[in-house]
Write a structure and sequence with these properties.
It is built from ten helices and six strands. The model has no long low-confidence stretch (mean pLDDT about 95). The protein has two domains: about 150 residues, no CATH class; about 100 residues, no CATH class. It is about 45% helix and about 10% strand. The longest helix is centred in the middle third of the chain and has 27 residues. The protein has a six-stranded mixed β-sheet, with helices on one face. By secondary structure, it is of the alpha+beta class. The protein binds zinc ion (ZN) (2 copies).
C-alpha cells in the first residue's frame, strides 16, 4: 500500500470519529478506496505530441477529448464489480448494477467522449439509479484516469488553462482547494484528480466575475476548513477546502465525503450540482 493510500485511510478513520453520522459512509469509502487503489493502474495515456497538446489546450479543448484511453479490460471489470459490491453495503441497488453492465467499458468511453448523459440514459433503460451508476463509474475509472492525467501532466503544463472544466478530461470540478499561506485557488477533478489554478472571484460554471453574484456558504464553526463557493447567476456551487498542500487522489475522495453536508446546505438554498 502506498503512503498516499495509507494517509487517505487514516483521514477517513478520523472523519468517522469526528462525524459519527458518517461512520457507515466512511466504512463504505474505505472498502472502495481499498478496491480501487490497492493495485496500481496499468493503463497508459494516448500518445500525444507536445505541440498538439499545447494547441489543443490553447483552443480550450481538454487533452483527452476525442482521444482513446485503452483500458485493461480484466482489471477494469474487476474494479467495477468490487466498487459495486462495496457500495451495496449502503445501497443494495449497486449489486444489480454489476450484473446489468457486466462489461462497463463502453460507459467509460462515453464519459471520456464528453457524453455523461449517455450513462444516465443507459442506467434509466435498465431501471437503475442513474446518479449511483455515474458515481460508481467515476470511482471505477478514477485510478486509471488519475494515472493517465499524472502521465500527461508535463504536456498539460505547456499551455495555460482558464476554464472551469478539467483541462485533462473536461469534467466539472468535484471540489476546490484554497491552498497554502497564500490561499491560492485550485480546482480538482473527481474523474482524473487533475488540478488547475483558477481565479478566486470567478464562477467555474458560467465564468461570471461579478462579486455581487458570487458568495460563500459554510456550516457554523467550519468556515476556516470547508466552504461552498456559490454563484447566483447560474446557481452552481463548488465546495472549497482549505489545504496546506495539494490533496492526494485518495484525500480528494475523503474530502468529498467530509463535505457532504455542504451539498445538503447548498441544495436547501436552491444551488445545483452541475
Ligand atoms: Zn479530469
Ligand atoms: Zn455561475
Amino acid at each position: 500500500m502506498t503512503a498516499a493510500i495509507a494517509e487517505g485511510l487514516a483521514e477517513l478513520g478520523k472523519l468517522a470519529k469526528r462525524r459519527p453520522s458518517l461512520a457507515d459512509s466512511c466504512a463504505t469509502l474505505r472498502d472502495i478506496l481499498t478496491a480501487i487503489l490497492s493495485a496500481p493502474a496499468v493503463e497508459s495515456p494516448p500518445c500525444l505530441d507536445e505541440i498538439f497538446c499545447r494547441d489543443k489546450l490553447a483552443s480550450g479543448i481538454p487533452l483527452l477529448r476525442g482521444e482513446k484511453v485503452t483500458l485493461d479490460a480484466p482489471s477494469f471489470r474487476h474494479r467495477w464489480r468490487a466498487v459495486c459490491e462495496a457500495a451495496a453495503r449502503q445501497n443494495p441497488g449497486a449489486r444489480g448494477l454489476a450484473d446489468a453492465f457486466a462489461d462497463p467499458q463502453h460507459l467509460f468511453d462515453e464519459v471520456l467522449a464528453g457524453r455523461p448523459e449517455s450513462v444516465h440514459e443507459a442506467a434509466d433503460a435498465v431501471s437503475i439509479d442513474p446518479s449511483m451508476t455515474a458515481t460508481i463509474l467515476r470511482l471505477t475509472s478514477f485510478p486509471v484516469l488519475a494515472k493517465v492525467a499524472a502521465d500527461l501532466e508535463p504536456s498539460r503544463r505547456q499551455a495555460s488553462w482558464e476554464h472551469g472544466c478539467c483541462p485533462t478530461c473536461g469534467s466539472w470540478p468535484l471540489l476546490g482547494e484554497f491552498r497554502g499561506l497564500e490561499q491560492l485557488r485550485f480546482l480538482r477533478c473527481g474523474l482524473c484528480a487533475s488540478e488547475w489554478g483558477f481565479p478566486r472571484l470567478c464562477c467555474p460554471f458560467c465564468g461570471i466575475r461579478d462579486h455581487r453574484e458570487l458568495g460563500y456558504l459554510h456550516i457554523e464553526g467550519e468556515e476556516a476548513r470547508f466552504r461552498a463557493a456559490t454563484c447566483n447567476a447560474c446557481m452552481g456551487y463548488v465546495k472549497m477546502a482549505s489545504t496546506l498542500a495539494a490533496l492526494s487522489p485518495p484525500q480528494l475522495l475523503v474530502a468529498e465525503l467530509a463535505t457532504v453536508h455542504l451539498d445538503m446546505a447548498a441544495a436547501e438554498r436552491g444551488y445545483l450540482v452541475v
